[in-house]
Automatic annotation (TrEMBL):
GO terms for molecular function: DNA-binding transcription factor activity; transcription cis-regulatory region binding. It comes from Salana multivorans. PROSITE patterns: HTH_LACI_2. Keywords: DNA-binding, Transcription, Transcription regulation. This is LacI family transcriptional regulator. PANTHER family: HTH-TYPE TRANSCRIPTIONAL REGULATOR GALS, LACI-RELATED TRANSCRIPTIONAL REPRESSOR. CDD domains: HTH_LacI (cd01392). The keyword DNA-binding applies. Residues 6-60 form the HTH lacI-type domain.
C-alpha cells in the first residue's frame, strides 16, 4: 500500500496544534510561542512534510523572491563587506525557501527605475537595500508605493523615516578601537575618514567620544579622503604623522592599508618613531592577512535580521519601526603596535 504524503492537517495532528498554527510556523514564525514552534518543527521534520509552493503562491500571491541591487565594484577593501552580505543574504533566504533576484544598477536613480520595471514585469515580494545615504530617494519611493523593503544601513539625514532597517553600530566600533589604542599608551590618536556619508560621520563620532572620555580631545587630529582610496589615505596619513599622530583610527580597512603603507615608509626612513598604532574597520580578508587590527562587522547577523524583517512584513506584521543596531567586535592584531621588526624601537608608547 502506498504511504500517504504528509499534509498540513497530518502535521497539525501529530504536533497537537491547529492547521493555522502550523501555517504560522511556516510563514510567520514570530507569531508562535517558542515551545509550540519547536514542537511543530519537530513534527515537520519527522513526517518529511514539504510545502506545496505552487499552491502557496496562488493562495498568498507571493513569488518567494527578494530583489537586491548590485552596484559597481569599488576599489576599496570595504566592498568585500557587501560581498559577504550578499552571500549571507542568499544563504539565509534559501534556508527559508526564498530566492534572491539580483540586478545591476549604477546609482539610486537607476535602482528606482529597476524597482518600477521589476514590479511591472516580475513577481518580486520585496527588496533589500544597501549603500544607504543622506535622504535616500529609494526609501521614499518604496514607502510611497507601500512596497515591502528593509535597508542595510540607517536612514541618514531622516531620523523620522518610517521603514525597517538593520545597521552596524559604527560609533561603538570606533569608540572601542580608540579606547584600545589609548589603553596601549598612545596619546595623539588621529582619525582618517571619508569626506561624505552618514556611516563615516557615525564612526568619527565614536572616535571623538573615546577621546573625550580619556581627556585626549583637546586638539583632535583628523583627515578625510574621497571614497576608499588607498593612495589618498596614504597621503592623508603623511599629514597626520607630520602633525604628531602616534596612532590612527580609520573608517575602513582600505584607508587603514593606506596609512600602513605610509607608516612602513616613514619608519624605514627613520622619520617616524615605532611603534605606531593602526586600526581599520570591516575586518576584511586583506586586513587579516596583513595583521591589521580591525573592527569586525557581524554581517551574517545583519543578513539574518534583514530577511526576517522582510518576511515579517510579508506576513502582515507592522515592522516599520523595527530598527536593529548590531554591535561590532574589535579584532586586535600586530598593527596595534606596528613596527618593521623587533629592533625598530624597543620603547613602547608612554603610559599616562
Amino acid at each position: 500500500m502506498t504511504e500517504k504524503r504528509p499534509t498540513l492537517a497530518s502535521v497539525a495532528a501529530q504536533a497537537g496544534v491547529s492547521r493555522q498554527t502550523v501555517s504560522n510556523v511556516l510563514n510567520a514564525p514570530d507569531l508562535v510561542l517558542p515551545d509550540t514552534r519547536r514542537r511543530v518543527l519537530e513534527a515537520i521534520e519527522a513526517s518529511g512534510y514539504r510545502r506545496n509552493h505552487a499552491a502557496r503562491q496562488l493562495r498568498t500571491r507571493r513569488s518567494n523572491q527578494i530583489g537586491l541591487a548590485v552596484r559597481p565594484a569599488g576599489d576599496g577593501a570595504s566592498r568585500q563587506v557587501l560581498d559577504q552580505f550578499l552571500h549571507a543574504l542568499v544563504e539565509e533566504a534559501q534556508r527559508l525557501e526564498y530566492r534572491v533576484v539580483m540586478f545591476s544598477v549604477e546609482d539610486d536613480a537607476a535602482e528606482i527605475e529597476a524597482f518600477a520595471s521589476l514590479m511591472a514585469t516580475s513577481d518580486i515580494d520585496g527588496f533589500v537595500l544597501t549603500d544607504t545615504d543622506d535622504d535616500d530617494p529609494r526609501t521614499a519611493w518604496l514607502t510611497e508605493r507601500d512596497v515591502p523593503f528593509v535597508a542595510f544601513g540607517r536612514p541618514w539625514g531622516n531620523a523620522d523615516a518610517a521603514h525597517a532597517w538593520i545597521d552596524v553600530d559604527g560609533a561603538a566600533g570606533e569608540r572601542d578601537a580608540t579606547t584600545h589604542l589609548a589603553d596601549l599608551g598612545y596619546r595623539r590618536i588621529a582619525f582618517l575618514g571619508w569626506t561624505e556619508g552618514g556611516s563615516g560621520r557615525d564612526r568619527r563620532a565614536g572616535w571623538l567620544a573615546a577621546l573625550s572620555e580619556r581627556g585626549l580631545a583637546g586638539d583632535p587630529l583628523e583627515r578625510f579622503v574621497d571614497g576608499d582610496s588607498t593612495a589618498g589615505a596614504a597621503s592623508a596619513a603623511r599629514e597626520l604623522f607630520d602633525a604628531g599622530a602616534d596612532a590612527v583610527v580609520c573608517a575602513s580597512d582600505a584607508l587603514a592599508i593606506g596609512a600602513l603603507v605610509t607608516a612602513r615608509e616613514r619608519i624605514a626612513r627613520g622619520t617616524l618613531r615605532a611603534p605606531i598604532g593602526l586600526v581599520g574597520f570591516d575586518d576584511s580578508p586583506v586586513a587579516q592577512a596583513l595583521g591589521l587590527s580591525s573592527v569586525a562587522q557581524p554581517i551574517r547577523t545583519v543578513a539574518q535580521l534583514a530577511v526576517r524583517s522582510l518576511l515579517d512584513q510579508l506576513a502582515g506584521l507592522d515592522v516599520a519601526q523595527v530598527h536593529e543596531l548590531v554591535a561590532p567586535v574589535l579584532r586586535p592584531r600586530a598593527s596595534s603596535r606596528f613596527r618593521l621588526d623587533e629592533n625598530d624601537d624597543e620603547e613602547a608608547p608612554a603610559a599616562p
